[in-house]
Amino acid sequence: MDTAKVFFGIDDYMARFDRYIKRSEARELARGYVVGLMMDGERKSVEPMSERVHASERGLQRLLTEVKLDHEGVMGEYRRQMLDETADHQGVLLIDDTAFPKKGKHSVCVARQYCGLRGKVDNCQIGVSMTYVGQGFAWPYAMKLFVPQSWDNLDDPECLRLREKTRMPEGAHYREKWRMALDLVDLIEADGVPHRAVVADSWYGNIMDFRRGLDERNKKYVVGIRSDTLVFLEAPVFEQVDDQEEKPGRRRKYPRLSDTNPLPIKVDELGKCVEEKDWEHLEIRRDCKDEPLIIEAVSRRVFPAEGYRKGGIHEEVWLIIERRHGDKQTELRYFFSNMPQDMPTLEMVRLFHERFWIEQGYQQLKEELGLDHHEGRSWPGWHRHVLLVFLAFGYLTLQRIQEKKRLQQEWWHQKLKTAKSSIVQ
Length: 425
Hints:
Elements: H1 3-6, H2 10-15, H3 24-38, H4 46-52, H5 57-65, H6 71-86, E1 92-101, E2 111-115, E3 120-134, E4 137-145, H7 157-165, H8 177-190, E5 197-200, H9 202-205, H10 208-216, E6 221-225, E7 230-232, E8 238-239, E9 256-257, E10 265-266, H11 267-273, E11 280-285, E12 292-304, E13 317-325, E14 330-337, H12 345-352, H13 356-368, H14 379-424
Parallel strand pairs: 1-5, 5-6
Antiparallel strand pairs: 1-3, 2-3, 3-4, 6-14, 7-10, 7-12, 8-9, 11-12, 12-13, 13-14
Helix pairs in contact: 3-4, 3-14, 5-14, 6-14, 8-10
């Protein structure tokens, strides 16, 4: 099969990365790997792909683990190409993580941890990712491999053996996922990427320090929260610790909530109290077919109550409650946002539903491009495979963008032709 004809422009696309892949053999292997990821086939691991692209299986394995390649240079060029077409001051940053189920314990950073794909704790790797949405297109900006604590016990000889065997760098250590997510936000900021908001689900949104980190970076956000999250409906009043106070018993360490201040309540209690007339009916257009998603939502100002027993005080935020009617039951979902006080509910809900792109993107990355098909065990191999999957996704996205431009031009030519005909008549 002539892949250059099937994947139009693939040679020009891959040629943009040549300066970061010095050897011609390595460039040819990288091109073959990217093409193999895009070709039909149930598995996108090295062995079946080598047969489809008529490449050496050993060569493709070396590409992932041994071939010299400027990883950051290739990733930077990929981002520049994508931003040239999608940079948008109304852009949105989507934070999420995805699981890579594994068998055994020898693949780098594999551990028993929550696996979203299976909905339970299972043996898997976790990648923390940032997706950029702009100009109506979404693409993966970065993905970092999460290092579990069991892979960072440097006093354990078995851990050290596994780290060495999987070629983990000395600087790779355990770091909470929410901190990794903030690192990705810092990366976006350092790259000068335009955006208006950060969106994340409740695995991140319920972490006070994550939201605080976004606030400290002057980032607007819309994040999911759990239904048992506590909030104050009015600014809480605390009684400060009096160092001169002389009372029997243990001295208080933290400010105490005033006796006259109402206790915080769970957001799901607020959801149950919303009157029917208060629900706003919103239509969100969310996919390429322009099919609407109809939801109902309300919003009000609240004060998050995490840590209030220790005197923790938080700034006022929006609480958004969304209601969706399913076939069998009605579901309520809850979100926090630090958007301006005059921000319409509709706009905040629209922003959160940009997460639709994550679901669609992961589906394509995994089902079509084999993101989770990598069978290697090393740190370099995992990151090299992810990089090449991103390149395949970038090529396909750029082709879609060019097709959209072509259709728009045809539409305008037809409109112009019709207008000229009307004038002549």
